[in-house]
Amino acid sequence: MNKRFVLSVIAVSLMLACASFAQDAKYPTLTDAKPMFKAGPNHMDLAPRAPVAQLTQWNGSFKDLTGKTINFTMVGTDPSKTNTSSTIPVYIIPVRLKYGTQNGNHIFDPKNTVLSNGKTVINNIIASPIFDPGVDFTQGGTDLGTTQYIDAFQRGNFWSTVASNSSYHVLLGKPKVLAQKTITVPPSLGSVINNPFGSGIVGTYDINAFDAHLQTWMAAIKKINPGVLPIFITYDAYLTSGGCCIGGYHNANGAQPGGQTYSHATYVDSPGAFSQDVSALSHEIGEWMDDPFVDNRVNCRDNSIMEDGDPLEGESNYGGYPYTLNGFTYNLQSLVFIPYFGAPASTSVHSWLSFQNDEKKVCPGQ
């Protein structure tokens, strides 16, 4: 088990024991909640049979510190061979979770819930640095550009070549919001509970049941194809898999180059809680960028695939750092660069192992 993750669990336990969260006695309180994210396994059996488009992607490789060659596929174009900007079309699908009288009698609605800044959950996500290129990301004195967060991360990831390729970007298109979907959660698969990481209440729902809905919707929505990224958004809800709490996941139906990638993230509006505002989304989109088909295998004991968000989720504030944009302070989770997985240190900006320089050691096993 990841040492950092163990420390995170201990920290959460202390929080649960000591903090005076505003909780409601009529809802259950979990004492064994763990902050988690998931990825895969790839649904190879659901691969598109005749994809009308493909995700913009490139293939690369490096020799890791153990002397083994790591082959990978990432979103965008090869930064060592191109100096272009790629934009990936995005569709956001809000998912409304409805709980009946037997499991909480509450509705969590990301499309219509209005936050303290007057925006709905969905509109606040669209206004965030995930999509709005309004933040100048300067890391360690080096200006990576005024751009979207994940693009700044990827530029820093390959700064050894991108520094001289000023036009290289991998951007997310302005999201198109599709019709909201509703899931009526059966008592056997989820309920309303007190937020184990903060104040207020949250809903829970089994991840496999949730993903089955996503598969049905993606098959029925004609606008979704392998060339676009569908993102499913829940509000104040955690998924479960043998325990709570999962803040998001990314996956693919089929392998590269024609597989369908997709992602889910929850938006929690309790200050300081796990998956606060867009922190879970930044985690999942960062991992989608560097491992879109969840099959970039690495020689690490804490990760079998190139999941660049997982190593930092156990840090303070769950790895999140505050960025203010459009009058709202968002939390963006730091992400590790590929040198963490054994690539040459010189690949990334300042030879750092992570975007915020908050990781000092390569992955266990390197």
Oligomer: single chain
Structural shape: globular
Cα distance spanning the termini: 16 Å
How many helical elements?
A: 6
Biggest beta sheet attributes? 11 strands, mixed
Helix and strand pattern: HEEEEEEHEEHHEEEEEHEEEEHEE
Q: Which class of secondary structure composition applies to the elements? A: alpha/beta
DSSP E strands, number: 19
Query: Averaging pLDDT over every residue, what do you get?
Result: 93
Which spans have pLDDT < 50 for at least 5 consecutive residues? 1-20
What is the helical fraction, as a range of percent? 10-25%
Which range does the strand content fall in? 25-35%
Q: Supply the number of structural domains.
A: 1
Describe the structure.
This protein is of the alpha/beta class. It has one domain. It is built from six helices and 19 strands. Strand 16 and strand 17 form a beta hairpin. Helix 3 crosses helix 6. The longest helix is centred in the N-terminal third of the chain and has 16 residues. The N terminus is likely disordered.
Please render the helix and strand layout as text.
Layout: H1 3-18, E1 36-39, E2 57-63, E3 69-75, E4 85-88, E5 90-99, E6 106-108, H2 121-126, E7 135-139, E8 142-147, H3 149-157, H4 159-162, E9 169-172, E10 176-177, E11 181-185, E12 192-194, E13 201-206, H5 207-220, E14 229-235, E15 237-240, E16 244-253, E17 260-267, H6 279-290, E18 320-325, E19 328-333
Parallel strand pairs: 1-16, 4-9, 5-10, 5-11, 5-14, 13-15, 14-17
Antiparallel strand pairs: 2-3, 5-6, 7-8, 12-13, 15-16, 16-17, 18-19
